[in-house]
TrEMBL record, chain A:
Belongs to the folliculin family. It comes from Danionella cerebrum. Residues 72-537 form the UDENN FLCN/SMCR8-type domain. Residues 293-305 have a biased composition (Polar residues). Its main location: other. The keyword Membrane applies. The lineage of its organism: Eukaryota, Metazoa, Chordata, Craniata, Vertebrata. Keywords: Cell projection, Cytoplasm, Cytoskeleton, GTPase activation, Lysosome, Membrane, Nucleus. It is found in: Cell projection, Cilium; Cytoplasm, Cytoskeleton, Microtubule organizing center, Centrosome; Cytoplasm, Cytoskeleton, Spindle; Cytoplasm, Cytosol. GO terms for cellular component: centrosome; cilium; cytosol; lysosomal membrane; nucleus; spindle. Residues 24-64, 282-308 are annotated as: Disordered. This is Folliculin.
UniProtKB/TrEMBL annotation, chain B:
InterPro entries: DENN_FNIP1/2, FNIP_C_dom, FNIP_fam, FNIP_mid_dom, FNIP_N_dom. It holds the Pfam family FNIP_N. The lineage of its organism: Eukaryota, Metazoa, Chordata, Craniata, Vertebrata. Belongs to the FNIP family. This is UDENN FNIP1/2-type domain-containing protein. It is found in: Cytoplasm; Lysosome membrane.
Amino acid sequence: MNALVALCHFCELHGPRTLFCTEAVHPPSPSPPQAGSAIPGDRDPEAEREGEGLTMRANSSATQRDMCEGCRSLPASHPGFVSVDNETGIRYLSHQHPRQAQLFSVVRQACVRSLSCEVCPGREGPIFFGDEQHGFVFSHTFFIKDSLARGFQRWYSIVVVAMDRIYLINSWPFLLRHLRLTIQSLQSTALKVFDSEQCVCPQRVMRMNSAFSPAVFPHQRSGNAARSLTSLTQHPNLWGSLHSSFSWLLKACGSRLTEKLLEGAPTEDTLVLIERQTEQEEEMSGWDGSEGEGSNLQSGQSESAQAKDFQFEDGKQDDFIGPKFKSLRHLRQVLGAADFRQLTWHVLMGNQVIWRGSDSGLIQSAFSVLKALLPVGCVRAIPYSPHYEEAYRCNFLGLSPDVPIPAHVSSSEFSVLVDVLNAEKGCAGQLTADEVLSLYQFHLSSTNTQPTDKGPTLLNKMEVALSNENLSVEVVSLCLLCLKEEWMNKVKVLFKFSKVDGRGKEDTQRVLGLLGATGPGEEDNVRLLKFWMTGLSKLYKSHLMTAVRGGERTLSQ
Amino acid sequence: MLLGVGKAHTGTCWHAPTVWSWASVVGLKMKFKIWRKNTSRWLFIPESASWNSWASAEFDLAQIRLIVYQDCERRGRQVLFDSKAIHKLDSSEPTADESKTTPNRSNACQIGCQASDKDKPPSYQYTRPASDVNMLGEMMFGSVSMSYKGSTLKIHHIRSPPQLMISKVFSTRFGSSSVSGSTSTLQDSFESMCQTFPSHSSSMAHSNPVDMPSRGHSEDGDSGIARSASLSSLLATPLPSPGSSLSSGCASSFQRRYLRSQATSLQHGPVPRCSNPAMIRRKKIAISIIISLPEREEENHSFQEFFFSHFPLFESHMNKLKTAIERAMIVCRRIAESSQRVQVYLCRVMEALGEFRMTVWNLYMAPRISEPVWLSMISQSAERNLLCQRFMKEMSLLMEHGAKTQFLSVLLTAVLTHHLAWVPTVMPSNLPPAKHACQKPTSQTVDHLAKSHPYNPLWAQLGDLYGALGSPVRVCRTVVVGRRRELVQRVLYVLSYFIRCSDLQEEHVQPQGRDNSANPCMSQTNDPSTEKHFSPPPDEPFSEVPGTNEKAQISGVGVPIPCMFVQQQQDLSKDTKSTNPPNSLEAANVGPESSETGQECFGEVSGELEHILANQSPLLHRVQFHIGSPREADNAGQAGNLAAMGAGRGFDKCLHQRLLTDVMRNESSDSALGDSDDEETSLQEVYMASELMEYDLPLPKFEVESRASVNHFGRSLLGGYCPQYMPDFALHGISSDFRLKQYLMADLEHTVLHPALDEPVAEALCIVADTDRLSVQVVSSQRRVFEGGRLGRDVMMSNLIHTLITSVLQLFALNIAADFCVMHLEDRLQEVYFKSRSLAEYLRGQTRVHVKELGLALGRNKGIRYKVKHEKMFT
């Protein structure tokens, strides 16, 4: 808990005093570690504190005049205690006073208020008080038996100070329950000491018998006022135990309530990426055998790196100096609306898309732009190959200019070929769409006889977005993401319906209707859905399969 | 087949969800457990039978006492009001302190002189205050006089008779405004009446309240925070790449909690003192509520647990009471005639007290939704299929009922627009799921945060329920009105799926564990590292886990824990190399289904956080979006620096805000204590000591038992079909909107002025769904005037939401398994999230909005309009 705990004492000679204080030092605010550079927001308080510390030290000519045994916990030479919670990095530090200067006065304030301002009926018990300037305080006052003290007892309090008022109040029952245990054990230990001391030398009798003299009285009493809590409890490791107890309290109070918070399930794209990575790793470890823990630690990073790679292929693309396609809109401008429509139609239907040309960088950039149209699981790309690869191996294939296309492919309606013809060898550098166009000619050919202008619905919508120049590239890509997710969700339903539940044709038609896949372009929509179904993650599919079995079992009970 | 089972029971046993009352659930933990075990049949058992029989704790209105005290420099302390010393002179009701009439559980608690007979207000007699009043005064003001500039809060526990006292002490500005004409003061009236003080003073000492500042307007002009919309601030996370499936993940849940942890950090120290010496402080007023605690230990315990966990609500109502008392004081000052003045004053205060008592009673006793769908799905994964089935069934019935007006779609449009906590629950996670795939993962980032930078989970939950996720903060409640009980309950049940919050679990420390941790004197050994080992109880499921002496005891939920869990626990303990306990808190509470959170959680949390922050650029961006001016962020250059600054600015901003609100709320200075620190010497010592290395002691280990906590807002603020309108509930149903109409506007304004959320609130909203008229309206604290006696603005249905709901229900009608339908519903909500995000991105670069453009692209014109409404509402 973001709080500190302190034991305070009302000294007969010196008034309210802080005896012992345990603070929780939290790990620095989460921010990427940067060697050498000072992070302003974070490091400042510490620097300040050290500065103050120095000034304090510089003019520390004051003596220890105002300290007696009763006001002291650890001797001046004692370095204090620390406990580190390795799991969270929180360090629990105990000293007589808090180490942070700004907390010093906070604790002082809490101590004074708990022992000399606030009134508790019976003088023993819990009180909450405080304000935003001095922090909020849960205080519990109590007596400790002392055979030599006035009234045979001394007055103490344990204060818990925090800035979060509500949290502290919420924790009242917990704090009360556990502080009471601590207090009771202190009291009972001191009571034993008290009883044994009374046996040896009954103070009451002695005091009754000794002549009272106003002149001697203060002197007498001051001698007695100096007993420390250690001597009152005869506990050799009192402060160490208190440190443990207070540290525990802070930790337990902070973790008393735990939140169970759900976030959205990962998208299918994420799942597929993870699956692919796992497969890769398994292959690697298969060869390597010595897979260390290191790779596990890195997994988070490499995942996102890979994801980015996949989407952007920035790194690779940057290696190619030369013209490339920057976005779907760019590609559309270069190819022209009609060819673009035809090409993307083939992409979405799952047909094999072959680009043939000498500039592998350009081809690769075309693929990375086009891939964004499909779910990750539907993309199988061979960016540049010296020979033809079959459609079942890849739906994106880049080829050198001279590679022949087999006859069964060139005659198939399930493929489209884009020949990139170098009109003239141009210079490298930033080129506008027109300039790229002037360098290359793109020749698109397919034996497909079906109309590509009706559907699928996704493509129609996509084209609207692409053709509207008012929408930025970012907005368009977000739109594309929406459309993909929307259709992916339809894919899931269809999968569940046809593959898992095995429903008949009529029912399937109804589902298609309610998914909004019917109507104009229905045939294309259905083709798209069926193709995309192949891109579902294994995890999802197996989950649905097992869920069905599980569900049936539940029902039969 | 699925449907067959359902239908067979619809006619007879398919009762609308039943309700339970607060006091009873706490008292009946045993029953709760037993009942849990019979879960396989629960769906078809009318729960009411078991739930209605448990009237354990009654709460008597007389248990709440009000004392108003004044502390004046010249005249000392005077009691201005003590409800215990007031007697009603009305002959019809001899025991005038109306509190004697404890409301029936099934009825509303209705009191107040206003309600009983309007024509002749009751007259009261003020007798000598009770004997304990002097002592109570001491406690309220403290023994040493301290001077305050603002109000301060104290809580005392009085042991016998067991009572809790909550005091608000505030100072009055002395004679700052002149209400001329009246020569004698209110105090004088009391003085003469009580004959405690001679009535000699003629000075005008009225209580001009130091009002609680309106915290709703503390948005900084220069931070741009006022303009950032709540949903858009949630959504304006730029996508890292087109089509990327990786997104901002749990950013918003994480960030809100992180900022809270920073804002309330002790390490940033207290707010610097801004004293205003010009202010004259001479008089303080204390308003104290004293609650008598139940005699029976168990009831006492459960009431206290409820009180302290729900304190923000109690405090908010106390503030309302305070305002009413101040008004009473001001009003009666204008009355010249002394006895009449006293009567007006007493009547007014008694009425306000009556309201307070009633609200507290209702808060404690009102019925709750017994199985809030969302929370139950989180906590009882084993029953998921049944829950889904019931939920889909109820939703279908509801859809059929309001088909003509599309009531459900309209209502869900409003709910999803304002109760925004669903958004983070559909934001896709980036982290790999574990074995129990496809179900929503628990947020690991937030989990790490909770450990390394603790924040108050109750606060987070309250914010979730009220939909207070954006900035500036807007809070929302939903009230369902209707005479048909079953229908209202059905609506409540369905909405309890869409109004979301995190589930809370409470860790109970085992008695054995206590001995060596909380109790410093038990181990009389020099080496604190030698802990006592306790042999595990025989029934403990996992006794000795190799590598640690840590034991996790699982209980409560009654779910059998698969062996896998043990396995994992062992692995984990190996991982942590047993230097510290493998947090059994964590391990114990996750249960079988979410034990996947395991491995990741046990790493170095701070490292994790750094990792998260370093890799989640959206999150960082969000921080900037919230806080800084965009220009600054652009200049910040390097990504790393940017990140650090973003985060830094994040909590600077928060601290700043805290400073502002705090200074306004609670200016106090302590002249009595002074600034003189006579412990300078020790301060010096502090720094000497700091150069040495502290002795390293191991953290005490402790055993915990984690239980589903009942005392949290997710359970308490989702109300059932209540006898009366309630101002606190995030959701509840009522039969008539009579009181609603009467109080709603004032309540909304009060929410903005004194938010229970402990952070400034810009606007308070209430969705009012009328199941009789099938209408849905939104009432706002900002918009007041509506013609025709309507409360608020009618809600327009979003087509996006309508299609969403319809298609999910149609799937269900096609006999697709309910739990798949629910999964699909979540997918569709995720679509809404994605679409809203596109829109946010679109709006970012746009000076003029042409929504059609985007609408055509996304294909759902009206849906987009819905989202624009979304945006506009928050911009």
